[in-house]
Amino acid sequence: MESLRGRPIATIPMDADLVILDCYDTIVVSDGPEGAWRPRKGLEELLDYLQDRRVAIASDSDEVEIRVLLRPYRGRFFGVYGAGNMVRHGLHTLKNLGRICRDARVEPEKAVMIGDNRGYLDELSARQFAIRFIQVPVGGAFSLASLIPGRRGTTRASLR
After folding, report:
1. What CATH number did the domain enclosing 122 receive?
2. Is residue 8 part of a domain?
3. Is residue 93 part of a domain?
4. 41 contacts 28 by C-beta, under 8 angstroms
5. Domain that holds residue 136
6. What pLDDT sits at residue 86?
7. For residue 109, is it within any domain?
8. Distance between CA atoms of 160 and 142, rounded to whole angstroms?
9. Residue 52 CB-half CA count within 13 A
10. Which residue of 47, 72, 131, 159 has the fewest CB atoms within a 10 Å radius of its CB?
11. Dihedral of CA 47/157/19/81: which sign?
């Protein structure tokens, strides 16, 4: 697995044929416990950039809820994988990213997972299936468009 520890900027690798996105606090954010979920800044630009690649959603939340939330982006994802796609591995329950790779017919080394949980569910799932991981910072100020190679500006996303 590739690691860029200590480097301040990470972008989607050019060789990634499959981009797996976490949903909550990654592509949608909330303004607090009572706030409604809304698309994170730069989501539309990111999806436009990824239009020629396979893009999937992987979440531990209810799949129907995710599909309703992402209805404006219907057709942009080849698959939405919710709580039914979790798998037990040792002491952990992980997102079954291996299934997503198989469904997409993409080898794990050609995939990248983008999520907010460094050292927890998103990153552990990526590690288990030998998939590169990009962590986005918590909070709505970060723009997903900054993950596009060649974009100017700094991010705090990190590739592991």
Report:
1. 3.40.50.1000
2. no
3. yes
4. no
5. 18-159
6. 96
7. yes
8. 18
9. 3
10. 72
11. negative
Give the tens place of pLDDT for each residue, 59-102.
999 999 999 999 999 999 999 999 999 999 888 899 999 999 99
Is beta strand 86-89 parallel, antiparallel or unpaired with respect to 92-95? antiparallel
- The identity of residue 95, as a single letter, is K
- The verdict on pTM exceeding 0.85 is yes
Enter the tokens of residue 24: 């909550």
Strand, helix or coil at 75? Answer: coil
Please report where in the chains the tokens 């990634």 appear, as a residue. Answer: 16
Strand ranges of the sheet holding 132-135, from the earlier edge strand across to the other edge: 79-81, 54-58, 18-21, 111-115, 132-135, 158-159
Q: Which of 27, 6, 143 is nearest to 76 (CA)?
A: 27
Residue 148 is encoded by which pair of tokens?
């596009």
Q: 42-65: per-residue pLDDT in tens?
A: 999 999 999 999 999 999 999 999
Q: Which two tokens stand for residue 111?
A: 């995939």
